């Protein structure tokens, strides 16, 4: 009689493959990493990899699929505050922290290479970006209404620029440099409401 599937064991193996994939894809690139390489790095057989993922592209997509619930939780938490500007900067901090992962620059480069080759990957990335965009735009509208952000900004356009600045941090990340202070400075100055009057 076959042993019933163990969900915890399956989840652990799937995560082991995903963790190995992040490291290898970042170091070697997607095209130069085989399923055998992934299996060896995860301590599994190639058959085990295919048990959890239909193909190598599905493994690569899994790196971004796991971002979606985290993005939604971040936005929900950020919207449930009384200070929209600080919530915007808090989101910037949280997203910028991910650039500290040493695999981040390599994975971002591979994403740019692969996204046009995989419509499902493009959909996942677009959905993640949309969740974050809606969160930033909503907070920007609240901040504009409260007078803590420049009222001349278009919330949707400003949200897109904030996301672009965060993406740039991933492409230019250095392992020994925390991008969050600079990201917070750039976004804070970009959003700052103009001061009234002149200094004496």
UniProtKB/TrEMBL annotation:
An example molecular function term from Gene Ontology annotations: transcription cis-regulatory region binding
DNA-binding feature ranges: 34-53
Highest taxon of the lineage: Bacteria
PROSITE patterns the UniProt entry points to: HTH_TETR_1 (PS01081), HTH_TETR_2 (PS50977)
Keyword Repressor recorded: yes
Family annotation (InterPro entries): BetI_C, DNA-bd_HTH_TetR-type_CS, Homeodomain-like_sf, HTH-type_TetR-like_transc_reg, HTH_TetR, Tet_transcr_reg_TetR-rel_C_sf
Organismal lineage: Bacteria, Bacillati, Actinomycetota, Actinomycetes, Pseudonocardiales
Any Pfam family hit: TetR_N
Protein name, per record: TetR family transcriptional regulator
Keyword Zinc applies: no
UniProt keywords, alphabetically: DNA-binding, Repressor, Transcription, Transcription regulation
Domain HTH tetR-type: 11-71
